[in-house]
Amino acid sequence: MPPPRPADAGRREESVPDFPTPRSDGPRIRELAEIGGRSDTRDVLAHATKQAQREYDDYFIVDIDAHVSEDHFWGEVLERIDNDVWRHIGMDQFGKFAGNNALLNIQPGMSHQSVGGRIGHQGRKEPMDGESGHPFVTAARRGMDAMGLDYQVVFPSAMLLLGMHPQDEVEVVLGRAFNRWLTEVVLRQDDRLKGMLYLPYNTPEVCEELVEKYADDEGIIGYTVCSTRNNPVHSDVYTRLYKLIEASGKPLAFHSGYHWGDPSFAQLNRFLSMHALSFTHYNQIHVTNWIINAMPERFPDIKMVWVESGLAWIPFLMQRLDHEVLMRPSEAPGLTRLPSEYMKEMWYTSQPMERTSMELLEAGMKAFNAETQLLYSSDWPHWDWDAPSTITRLPFLSEQAKRNILGLNAARVFNLPTDRRKPAATSVLQQRPGIS
Predict the structure, then answer these.
(1) Is residue 403 domain-resident?
(2) Could you say which DSSP state residue 362 is in?
(3) What do you get for the CA distance between the two ends of the chain, in Å?
(4) Domain named Amidohydrolase-related: which ranges (predicted)?
(5) What would the pLDDT profile of 335-356 be if each residue is shown by its tens digit?
(6) Which strand ranges, in their side-by-side order, compose the sheet holding 193-198?
(7) Which pLDDT score, from 0 to 100, does residue 1 have?
(8) Exposed site from 198, 211, 258, 335, fewest CB < 10 Å?
């Protein structure tokens, strides 16, 4: 069976009923060109805006996981490398042969996210004629307005594999440079955009330095570790780092990803297979090590957030670890409760939400107290992104649960004010009249 196309790819959208009556001497509807990377974000997300207008325009909504296409602005990041040698090497590669992959360890030929070009995946390259400010900020603001978001937290994209880079010093210089670019360029231009500081986790002492440096930065609302790496999270080398994070009051997030180069995935012959398993694989390992080694007991005030692994793995791991601990309690002597009880106090992001069985989804969400522990995330602009309607249309959630998941839980975790920051959905639609 051929893979499904996204609902809005190359299709005409239904006309917006709220537009004024058209002039008799002009067409009411202008047909869009096929949706692509240069399409206006507001057109790509027009259906989501209509959903917001009908279903959740009055909700406070925080998107915990969207992505900066930093490779589109890679020269700006490389220029901020604070090591003269690595900056020279990076800019030389950027200008001659490596382009947007300079210094990175990604393998473009091994990524099939776009399904042979049939599904738009990464980044917006839309025209910004007449717009002031950085083009990413403009595109992000359009996306926030179109989806009805009050805040959006942005993560890197191409850098998610840096934990597997053979040169730890490259992760350090790129991590520092990205943090500078994020805080100096992006976050300063729109306070609805928030960031999770990139921690070059292979080098703990640099992570400590960065946490101390940005602890009071209002745009940085937490710290992120890219999960695609083989570091044991319970290692004593991270003790001081965790104490600093705990003292800051900001959460620690592990953002999962894929890596077909990992030997454990070598026998998989389809991107689909690797993609399905890898995003849960890394976070399952880190959660297991975190709990079995009693890290919640050692650092009880760290708010742990697990990003972009979906939900299906959570009840599985809860039940599996409880079963093992009850059989072999001597191997987890630091625990005072069952693993599932610690997991119920962690936070998880919603995307990609597995919705093939409402019965299983409901049971899984109940298992980890989704009403208080789940955080809405879109993963925009990646190919499998989820609109807020992914939450509002779940039939088993109460009205309060929907509001919690879409924004109020995030306000509690990240200490965000809950006043409305977004424009009305109707006004967003009226900015693009006549487009269908």
Answers:
(1) yes
(2) H
(3) 30
(4) 142-416
(5) 999 999 999 999 999 999 999 9
(6) 62-67, 151-155, 193-198, 220-226, 252-255, 304-307, 347-349, 374-375
(7) 53
(8) 335
